[in-house]
């Protein structure tokens, strides 16, 4: 395995640049979001079928490609990339190293959105954002319709939900990238996770993308030596206090069909463990009972819309390149 980056011979009293992990990771799962990627500078750029979104998709694919290439060069035999933004059809597989398996669209299964982790032994999260109700760039948790989401008194970030959903498979979250606030939340919640931040005060057209992607790829490779993180499984019970952004009517529409206690735009969800909490939040945010009952069809339809949206992105990018 080629986990050592440092080409210099080591001397006895010098620290190695990267220590060899006791058990090298053989299959890295990459979860890719767009808000903390190098091409997303606004809410519009994260929104389906907008012009800035098309450019952001391209930049996101290039970010992922830089990481994937570096992981293969470092000796990782297998990399799976799962698109995790909105429709889950943002990544352009033709722009990403062909050795990686790119998974778009959402799947049913024990790991929400993903189905199963397919034998991955560590997860890296790229392009992420901070928790709802905090100061990060486009901060939200699961959906921007939640203005705030506090669990047992502190904001809940997606990094916790995603990492916890993979914990039953013994998969640790070893690397994370996003805005500085998102990174500091990740480090605080998941002890030992390594992070690389992106400066969101610089607009995507002024950001030195190549340089930053180089740093991102190098940081991801360094995280291959990270064997200090345990699978993340916080102990319950959990009490989630949620504020719905668009007020009581919107909160009623989301919460009442599931009989979640509600007062005005504030919703309460209680859960004995983190998996139940995640499932109940998914129901609140995405799945009214009628949709949940017809989920196989709903998912097929949703994935088809996403696939068509990505065709639109390709068409936009071709038109741009001809200008
Ligand atoms: Zn996203």
Please render the helix and strand layout as text.
Blueprint: E1 27-32, H1 51-73, E2 78-83, E3 101-103, E4 122-128, E5 146-151, E6 154-155, H2 158-166, E7 173-178, H3 180-189, E8 194-197, H4 209-222, E9 238-244, H5 248-255, E10 262-263, E11 266-271, H6 274-286, H7 289-293, H8 295-322
Parallel strand pairs: 1-2, 1-4, 2-3, 4-7, 7-8
Antiparallel strand pairs: 5-6, 5-9, 9-11, 10-11
Helix pairs in contact: 1-4, 1-8
The protein binds zinc ion (ZN).
Structural descriptors:
323 residues; alpha/beta; six-stranded parallel β-sheet; five-stranded antiparallel β-sheet; 8 helices; disordered N terminus; binds zinc ion
What would you say about this model in short?
The protein is α/β, with parallel strands linked by helices.
Detailed description of the structure:
The protein is an alpha/beta fold. 34% of the residues lie in helices and 17% in strands. The chain contains 8 helices and 11 strands. The chain has helices at residues 51-73, 158-166, 180-189, 209-222, 248-255, 274-286, 289-293, 295-322, and strands spanning 27-32, 78-83, 101-103, 122-128, 146-151, 154-155, 173-178, 194-197, 238-244, 262-263, 266-271. The strands form 2 sheets. A 6-stranded parallel beta sheet has the order 3-2-1-4-7-8, with helices on both faces. Helix 1 packs across helix 4. The N and C termini lie far apart (45 Å). Bound molecules: zinc ion. Zinc ion binds at residues 33-35, 46, 85-86.
């Amino acid at each position: 395995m080629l986990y050592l980056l440092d080409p210099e011979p080591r001397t006895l009293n010098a620290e190695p640049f990267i220590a060899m992990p006791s058990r090298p990771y053989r299959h890295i799962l990459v979860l890719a979001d767009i808000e903390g990627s190098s091409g997303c500078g606004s809410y519009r750029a994260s929104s389906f079928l907008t012009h800035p979104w098309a450019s952001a998709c391209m930049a996101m694919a290039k970010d992922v490609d830089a990481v994937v290439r570096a992981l293969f060069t470092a000796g990782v035999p297998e990399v799976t990339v799962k698109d995790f933004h909105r429709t889950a059809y943002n990544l352009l597989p033709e722009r990403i190293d062909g050795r990686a398996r790119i998974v778009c669209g959402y799947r049913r299964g024990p790991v929400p959105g993903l189905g199963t982790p397919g034998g991955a032994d560590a997860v890296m999260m790229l392009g992420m954002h901070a928790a709802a109700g905090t100061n990060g760039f486009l901060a939200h948790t699961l959906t921007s319709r939640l203005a705030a989401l506090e669990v047992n008194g502190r904001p809940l970030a997606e990094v916790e939900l995603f990492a916890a959903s993979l914990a039953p498979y013994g998969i640790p979250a070893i690397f994370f990238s996003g805005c500085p606030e998102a990174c500091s939340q990740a480090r605080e919640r998941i002890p030992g996770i390594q992070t690389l931040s992106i400066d969101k005060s610089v607009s995507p057209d002024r950001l030195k993308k190549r340089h930053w992607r180089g740093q991102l790829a190098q940081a991801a490779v360094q995280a291959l030596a990270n064997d200090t993180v345990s699978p993340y499984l916080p102990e319950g019970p959990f009490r989630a206090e949620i504020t719905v952004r668009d007020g009581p009517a919107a909160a009623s529409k989301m919460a009442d069909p599931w009989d979640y206690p509600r007062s005005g735009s504030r919703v309460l969800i209680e859960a004995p463990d983190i998996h139940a909490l995640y499932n109940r939040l998914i129901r609140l945010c995405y799945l009214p009972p009628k949709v949940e009952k017809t989920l196989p069809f709903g998912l097929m339809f949703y994935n088809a819309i996403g696939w068509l949206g990505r065709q639109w992105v390709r068409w936009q990018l071709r038109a741009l390149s001809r200008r």
